[in-house]
Design brief:
Layout lengths: L4 H4 L2 H14 L4 H25 L10 H25 L11 H25 L5 H4 L2 H21 L2 H18 L2 H6 L1
Helix pairs in contact: 3-7, 3-8, 4-8, 5-7, 7-8
Length: 185
């Protein structure tokens, strides 16, 4: 029965349950340690690829307005909004006890949607990001970030470790690694 539990509930029953669990689950020390390790592993993968390809460049933003805007803005979007859409609403919550095969299926679907979302977003709602969000290196780094955020969420059952990993990666890119200049000139 646990295998089918996520399919026996109607979406209007399942989604509120996932939201409640994801936002109310407080990460413990192990969850935070795993999130920190995932952020470190992401950095070890992303930095060499980004610098080698020329996608990343050291470019430190010093304006207090830009820094404050990025720190707060990135928490809300992409941090909370994208983790809500691509992890919480799509991935089975650990309490659902789905099989490994189903977890892989939903994880792959979540990752594909997360990566495809970025160019679609640039073509529709965020045209300023078009050249960046369609860049193959950006999409590769987004895929790696999506894997890290999925692991953080599935390991903890809480949205907060995934939000922290996502927020850290994006704010570091914007404020230290040329992301702000790449997007806004």
């Amino acid at each position: 029965m646990p295998f089918l539990s996520c399919f026996l509930l109607l979406p209007w029953e399942l989604l509120p349950r996932r939201l409640t669990h994801a936002f109310s689950t407080i990460p413990d020390f192990t969850d935070l340690l795993v999130a920190a390790m995932l952020a470190l592993v992401y950095s070890v993968i992303a930095l060499p690829i980004g610098f080698w390809s020329g996608f990343l460049k050291v470019d430190v933003q010093t304006s207090r307005r830009i820094i404050a805007g990025a720190l707060v803005g990135c928490l809300l979007s992409p941090g909370i909004t994208e983790e809500l859409l691509f992890r919480v609403l799509i991935l089975p919550h650990p309490s659902e006890n789905v099989s490994g095969l189903m977890l892989w299926f939903w994880g792959c679907l979540s990752l594909v949607l997360f990566v495809v979302y970025h160019p679609l977003n640039a073509l529709t709602f965020y045209p300023i990001g078009r050249s960046t969000f369609m860049n193959p290196v950006f999409l590769l780094l987004a895929a790696v970030l999506g894997v890290a955020c999925s692991i953080a969420y599935l390991q903890s059952g809480s949205i907060w470790p995934a939000v922290a990993v996502h927020w850290l990666a994006v704010t570091a890119w914007l404020l230290l690694l040329g992301g702000y200049r790449r997007l806004y000139g």
